[in-house]
Amino acid sequence: MSFTKELRQKANSIWTANHEHAFVQEIGSGTLDIEAFKYYMKQDYLYLIEYARVFALGVVKANDLNTMATFAAYLQSTLHEEMSLHRSYAQRLGITNEELEHTIAAPTTIAYSSYMISEAQKGSLAHLIAAILPCAWSYSEIGKRLATVPGALEHPQYGEWVRMYQDDEFEAIADWLCAKLDELAITLGEAERKQLEDIFLTSSRFEYLFWDMSYQQSHWE
Ligand SMILES: Cc1ncc(CN)c(N)n1
């Protein structure tokens, strides 16, 4: 079994909890409270700014031109495709650009994005990928699953979100990161593989906390 398949298996209970989280389920059914979605969109925008920085660090840490170019392409697509989804929702939901960029980051947003940046800065390229892989991969899995829910793709409010994350182009990012991490892991010893596993599991847990924050915190803001 490949290294990333092993990681996916070890994180299975966390990923199942993410799939079953009320926020995710209610995007699929179209019943999510719009205030929770607005809160999520604003926090996620801040998160994505830092996520994009990790791709920039990938350009710096890459040791061949193809890897550099791929990280640069994903930096570009995060800033101009994924974040344009948020800008388009913001416009539709009456959130100004000012509000989007100057929202105060919640503790979970700060903790998750600081964790990713810290692992990316202090570790190797493999550490960097382990920190961001759950972000790219779990969203693709969630998008693909929600796309099978009747009506989810066409829902007037949440359909655009589902269409973005179920897209094959989005899945290609996760596939590429998996292939790169599998390639790098071949030469690593047990101790370093264990570090990568811990990072992957921590980011997976942060994914859960992000859904939960968005579902809960919007009620007590
Ligand atoms: C918190 C979070 N994690 C992952 C993704 C997908 N890039 C996202 N938009 N937000």
UniProtKB/TrEMBL annotation:
Domain Thiaminase-2/PQQC intervals: 9-216
Keywords for the protein's UniProt record, in alphabetical order: Hydrolase, Thiamine biosynthesis
Catalytic activity: 4-amino-5-aminomethyl-2-methylpyrimidine + H2O = 4-amino-5-hydroxymethyl-2-methylpyrimidine + NH4(+); thiamine + H2O = 5-(2-hydroxyethyl)-4-methylthiazole + 4-amino-5-hydroxymethyl-2-methylpyrimidine + H(+)
EC number(s) per entry: 3.5.99.2
Keyword Transmembrane belongs to the record: no
CDD domains: TenA_C_BhTenA-like
Organism domain of life: Bacteria
EC top class, as a word: hydrolase
Pathway(s) the chain acts in: Cofactor biosynthesis; thiamine diphosphate biosynthesis
Gene Ontology MF term list: thiaminase activity
UniProt xrefs under NCBIfam families: salvage_TenA (TIGR04306)
Cited function: Catalyzes an amino-pyrimidine hydrolysis reaction at the C5' of the pyrimidine moiety of thiamine compounds, a reaction that is part of a thiamine salvage pathway. Thus, catalyzes the conversion of 4-amino-5-aminomethyl-2-methylpyrimidine to 4-amino-5-hydroxymethyl-2-methylpyrimidine (HMP).
Subunit structure: Homotetramer.
Protein family per UniProt: Belongs to the TenA family.
UniProt name for this protein: Aminopyrimidine aminohydrolase
Gene coding for it: tenA
